[in-house]
Every structure is written in C-alpha cells, then in structure tokens.
C-alpha cells in the first residue's frame, strides 16, 4: 500500500469511517483493532484538550460532558487538515452556531467567538502606532482616498445577547444580574496593556463607524458620518485605528 493511501485510510479510521484494518499491515504488542482504538482515543483527547484551552468560557458554561460531545462532533465534521494546530479553533464558533445541540444556547457561538478572539489578540506581539508624520505628507487628493486600518485580530460583534457581560461573568465566576434580553455591540482588540487585549462595549454609532472603517470606506465617505472627527480621534487614541492606505497603494 502506498504511503498516501495508508495515511488516507488511517485518517478515515480516526474519523470513525469504515476501514479494513487488516489491509494496513500494522503490527505491535496488541491486536491492530486495540492499537488503533488507543491511538484514536489519544487523538480525540489531545484535540479536545486543545479546544478546552482555547474556549474556557464555553467549557465553563456547558460543562465537561457537553463540551466533549461538542468537541468530538467538531473534530469529526471539521477534521484537522494542517499539521499546525494553532489555528484549528478558528472554525469552532461557526460550528457551534450550526449544530442542533446548541439551539437552546443561542449566545454560545458568540461566547466562543470572544474566547477565540481573546486568544488570538493576546498572540499579537507588536501593535503599530498611528503614523501621524506620514499622514501629514499626503496631498489633499491622496487624503480623500485614504482608508484607515485597524489592528489584525480585532473583533467587532453586534449581538442580540449581552455577550460581553456573559463572557466577563464567566471569567469572574458570577453571572448574577445579567440581563439576557439586552442587545450589545462590542469590540475586542490587541493591546500592550493588561492581558494583551482590551474588550469593551460600543454604542451603535461607534460600531457602525468601525464597521465602515473595516470594510474600507474612504476618508471622504467616513466624513459623512455624524461625529466623524470625534470618533476618529477616540479610536486613534485607543489604538483601534493604527494605520492607513491610500489609493496609490
């Protein structure tokens, strides 16, 4: 059997797909069925532990048994395709949002998104400061085409649920007083302060402004937004807007 075929059969067995184990010619101190069962169990335990580390708030909300069932379903339906496990958790929040098991927990995917966003924001080593000097060198025509940038791994969420309150409540081990009927706009972004990430609620106007920035609206378009200058100054001062590009780039 060719190596590629062996790897494909091995992967199918890990994902609980039917495989003729006798054709793999695997030898060892135990029958091939037991050896493969042990390996498969270790495989799921390792990936589940990884997901628990990336999504501690989700784990705290649903408990060990539910989380492990959810993780197993995720591993089977969204198998690891890259040897680098670092970004494997990126699909966990959309998966949670798509499965029947979490229909009664409509806020859980959002909490997972915050867990993942926090994990990724902390991984940002360097955060650039806004280049005021370079901005001053632009012509008026260049400035009109200017598009502002926000740091990589910045997360913007509009939710029908108080995600930030839930997420912070889990971290503090206190969910009393959370109004589950309140909608929320929020941001999470890398920071050189505190835990390596800042997270806080936004007003609807602030959220819409940052959404326009993130989709690439030009300075001329942004200037039509109410309180444009005030919002721009605020978010530059808080390192949420930390760069720009021009139409010449």
Q: Describe it for me?
A:
This protein has 249 residues and is mainly alpha-helical. Helices cover 50% and strands 10% of the residues. It is built from 12 helices and 5 strands. The strands form 2 sheets. The protein has a 3-stranded antiparallel beta sheet with strand order 2-3-4. Strands 1-5 form a two-stranded antiparallel sheet. Helix 3 crosses helix 4. The radius of gyration is 23 Å and the shape is elongated.
Keywords, separated by commas or semicolons:
249 residues; mainly alpha; 3-stranded antiparallel beta sheet; two-stranded antiparallel sheet; elongated
Outline:
With 249 residues, the protein is mainly α.
Can you identify the CATH class of the largest domain? Alpha Beta
Mean pLDDT: 86
Structural class computed from helices and strand pairing = mainly alpha
- End-to-end CA span: 52 Å
- What's the arrangement of strands in the largest beta sheet? 2-3-4
Give helix % range.
40-55%
Q: State the total count of DSSP E strands.
A: 5
Number of helices: 12
Low-confidence stretches: none
Number of domains: 2
The biggest beta sheet is recorded as:
3 strands, antiparallel
Strand content: 5-15%
Going by CATH, the architecture of the largest domain would be: Alpha-Beta Complex
Overall geometry comes to elongated
Gyration radius (Cα, Å) is 23 Å
CATH topology of the largest domain: Outer Surface Protein A, domain 3
Note the run of SSEs as H and E: HHHHHHHHEEHEEHHHE
């Amino acid at each position: 059997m060719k190596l590629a075929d062996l790897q494909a059969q091995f992967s199918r067995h890990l994902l609980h797909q039917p495989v003729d184990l006798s054709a793999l010619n695997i030898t060892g101190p135990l029958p091939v069925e037991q050896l493969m069962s042990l390996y498969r169990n270790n495989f799921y335990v390792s990936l589940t532990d990884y997901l628990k580390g990336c999504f501690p708030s989700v784990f705290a909300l649903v408990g060990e048994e539910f989380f492990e069932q959810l993780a197993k379903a995720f591993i089977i339906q969204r198998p690891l395709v890259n040897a680098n496990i670092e970004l494997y958790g990126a699909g966990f929040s959309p998966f949670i949002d798509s499965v029947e098991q979490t229909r009664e927990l409509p806020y859980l995917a959002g909490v997972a998104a915050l867990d993942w966003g926090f994990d990724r924001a902390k991984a940002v080593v360097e955060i650039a400061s806004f280049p005021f000097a370079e901005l001053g060198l632009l012509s008026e025509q260049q400035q009109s085409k200017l598009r502002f940038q926000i740091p990589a791994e910045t997360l913007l969420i509009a939710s029908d649920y108080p995600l930030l309150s839930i997420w912070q409540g889990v971290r503090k081990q206190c969910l009393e007083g959370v109004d589950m009927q309140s909608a929320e706009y929020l941001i999470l972004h890398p920071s050189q302060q505190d835990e390596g990430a800042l997270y806080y609620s936004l007003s609807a106007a602030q959220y819409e402004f940052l959404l326009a920035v993130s989709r690439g609206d030009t300075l001329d378009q942004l200037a039509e937004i109410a309180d444009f200058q005030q919002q721009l100054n605020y978010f530059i001062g808080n390192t949420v807007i930390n760069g720009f590009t021009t139409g010449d780039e």
